[in-house]
Amino acid sequence: MKDTIRQLIQQALTRLASEGVLPEGLSPTIQVENTKDKSHGDFASNIAMMLAKPAGMKPRDLAEKLIAALPQDDQVAKVEIAGPGFLNFFQNSDALAQRLEEALADDHLGVRKAGPAQRTVIDLSAPNLAKEMHVGHLRSTIIGDAVARVLEFLGDTVIRQNHVGDWGTQFGMLLAYMQEQPVGSDAELSDLEGFYRAAKKRFDESSEFADRARELVVKLQAGDADCLRLWTRFNDISLSHCQAVYDRLGVKLTMADVKGESAYNDDLANVVADLKAKGLLTESDGALCVFMDEFKNAEGNPLPLIVQKAGGGYLYATTDLAATRYRSNVLKADRVLYFVDQRQALHFQMVFAAARLAGFVPASMEMEHMGFGTMNGADGRPFKTRDGGTVKLIDLLNEAEQRAYDLVKAKNPELDDAELRQIASAVGIGAVKYADLSKHRTSDYSFNFELMLSFEGNTAPYLLYAYTRVASLFRKRGLDFTEVEGHISLAAEQEQALAAKLAQFADTLNNVAAKGVPHLLCSYLYDLAGLFSSFYENCPILAAEDEATQQSRLRLAALTGRTLKQGLELLGLQTLERM
Ligand code: ARG
């Protein structure tokens, strides 16, 4: 609907320009918002206020001319001027009902991508394999997963890339320790944290061990067969830990999506040689660097992007440069989204700029760093265990599920244990994910079990429960969502409000996809659940005054149920039919 309104306004602007009312050549971004108060219509635009100055007119006068120049459209019932010069658009309820009918008849709920379908690479999760996944890896994993699902639903070809850290200096230390324990069984290794700590202790205590560790990194990176064998064994175990966490979280990542830093090893020398051939490298204290005019430090001195250390070693940036061209040349990406901590913003700005300068990627390939803030503890400080250690992600998920189990059991003591466990998993894991996804991606947030497990407010339990209410309404009648006959007609205020929200699903998903911000989908579903509640309270369904009204209301409920279910699924939450 917003797109339609934007197009109507655009046509009016073109017409006014050709009539000389507006200067030629204006190309403003036309903003159209949902109104808060429905007595002011359904959508509003501030275009007349934006263009009043260049047009040399008062905003309200321009607004009047715009209304006169707007083409007729079935979906718009009327347009009014409000306040200082807003244009308020009132949706035509018959046209709105018609749109909902189309959504009901479509397994994609009438959702289409606003622009052309693209091949999109999603760089997500990417833990370092030397240690176990900790809470710091949660955000990249689940935000990336949600955006990937939305893009897929909109019709993009999505390629997930798990750029795991499997090649750093820490591996020398781990290999040296593995060599000392030739009998080290998989079981011993499966406690990765303990293994890492023991290796680190040796490293700090013995300089002979530390030297050997350094030698081993060099040997490994040079392709030594023994080193590679140990390294593969270690990584296989570490990756199987990651996979267990992914499965538990219900994110769509598999071993096939792993393309770690090591995968680019053979190309790193070429990256440096190509940068050199393009004249982009400068030597600084023996290291090879790319200097770009737009990157300066606080004192105004040029900042280097280092691609090779004085000793010959390559860096994180070198690997990322190699990855940009792999994603372009081999994966044929149109767009690459990097879900990585906000603190790496400068790294990505520099890598993207250098990749473009070097011609590693075509100008048409979009690269966007989808940075995110930190997950803090309830005290607002970085999330830690009681003794100050990092919290393992798996421990956090276990606790969430246990707490959900206790809560659900207290509410429904009659449920059998198997069902309780199943509900606890959906609610507990869903709560952790939803609490994270519902915050704006770039802000920090405080992790709080009590709040995220509450059945009130913008939480997973509230939404999962809202969905079960719709599901049970249908179960009681022995119907499913696709079986309701009849037509939607929108009479009551609550029906209109619910319908208008349902019609915003496509716009919402397109915004999530464009900006990589799943919180928009969370607020949308929360609003939808709220509007459904007031509809349900005010517009009797089973006791409706006549058959046609009952069917219309059931159809609205069916579309609400399907939209909630689809929306939660796109966020990566498991829905329940009852709880
Ligand atoms: N392993 C890195 C870290 O833990 C994240 C990698 C993100 N992706 C990338 N292409 N650099 O910080």
Automatic annotation (TrEMBL):
Record's catalysed reaction(s): tRNA(Arg) + L-arginine + ATP = L-arginyl-tRNA(Arg) + AMP + diphosphate
KW tRNA-binding (keyword) present: no
Residues in Arginyl tRNA synthetase N-terminal domain copies: 3-91
Motif mapping: 'HIGH' region: 127-137
Domain DALR anticodon binding, first and last residues per copy: 463-579
Gene Ontology terms, MF aspect: arginine-tRNA ligase activity
Main location group: cytoplasm
InterPro entries on file: aa-tRNA-synth_I_CS, Arg-tRNA-ligase, Arg-tRNA-synth_N, Arg-tRNA-synth_N_sf, ArgRS_core, DALR_anticod-bd, Rossmann-like_a/b/a_fold, tRNAsynth_Ia_anticodon-bd
Subcellular location: Cytoplasm
Keywords for this protein: Aminoacyl-tRNA synthetase, ATP-binding, Cytoplasm, Ligase, Nucleotide-binding, Protein biosynthesis
EC number from the UniProt entry: 6.1.1.19
Pfam family membership, one: tRNA-synt_1d
Assembly and binders: Monomer.
Family statement drawn from the similarity comment of this UniProt entry: Belongs to the class-I aminoacyl-tRNA synthetase family.
Protein name, entry field: Arginine--tRNA ligase
Organism of origin: Metapseudomonas boanensis
Encoding gene per record: argS
